[in-house]
């Protein structure tokens, strides 16, 4: 059994760092108690991957403990389990998110004692355990995970972490896009994977006056966090209180299969005076507008080029060459859409609106789809 000592000191230091940076939600005492009551190390596998490299509890215990209580994500699954995360290869498909990101998003949930919460993306089970602790025995947590192996590991983690007399989150294996109707309505829906659009089931399963908090719009830029409150008629009205970069909901991943070769035949070649870096590294608010006005566009930023990919159509892509000291940049567009033209038009629409900041945008969600607006719900942009 690992002694509690290495955790306590490190956790106290981490909480203090996050509180200083403003990430600890209020009431701070409740959250501090919850963070101490839910031992983060119980949710980290013996071998995993971090931004600073691999960690192995048996081979290098100090390094492992430091990583568990550092403010950084820990990759626990890669390529849906087909690649060992410790290799550092492949795409992360599950992780224990950085604690600052977890607390930042959970702060918007405004959780209270007795709340019924639906979580999407159980992963290791850590955020489900934290949520259960905050909503207390009068509340409940249902957490949905698409990957059965992860759900089974999470169940073991939760059993090891939570005292026998505490109310454990109910774990469901399934597509979180469907929510979990059997236990609805929920006071809060909390997604820990990002969506392009908010699944209708989440709205339908949220109590009037309840709230959905989800990472949003990840394909083009870093992504934002959407906080959507549900009205009695089932409409969701939301805002974007910050940025948040999470892996996408499995059913809303961009498709693969775009060519990695800019000489691929059939491309329409032109030149542009717009520096692609201006569009590729735009503020989050511009990314949000681009996500809506050029729907489905995903960006890949390479050293020598900006790739734009249609996340729903592998035949559709654009590339802009990042030549230095050039007045004009070569553009190649392929497939049924002119993705560069669409993306640039969306970027300049944001400019023409006066470069509004992210917090001025809002979202209305109904059965008919989503509407992005600026300042007031009737000022619809798209
Ligand atoms: C960033 S991790 C979640 C971290 C987790 N909350 C924790 O505390 O460890 C995202 C998780 O979402 C899961 N996921 C992706 N698509 C999903 C879907 N459609 N339904 C449910 N879970 C999904 C992934 O398998 C992954 O475990």
UniProtKB/TrEMBL annotation:
Broad class of enzyme this protein falls into: transferase
Subcellular location, principal: cytoplasm
Gene Ontology biological-process annotations: methylation
One Pfam assignment: PCMT
Localisation per UniProt entry: Cytoplasm
Molecular function via GO: methyltransferase activity
Top-rank taxon: Bacteria
Record keywords: Cytoplasm, Methyltransferase, S-adenosyl-L-methionine, Transferase
Enzyme Commission numbers on file: 2.1.1.77
Family listed: Belongs to the methyltransferase superfamily. L-isoaspartyl/D-aspartyl protein methyltransferase family.
Official protein name in the record: Protein-L-isoaspartate O-methyltransferase
Naturally occurring in which organism (per UniProt): Actinomadura meridiana
The organism's taxonomic lineage, starting at the top: Bacteria, Bacillati, Actinomycetota, Actinomycetes, Streptosporangiales
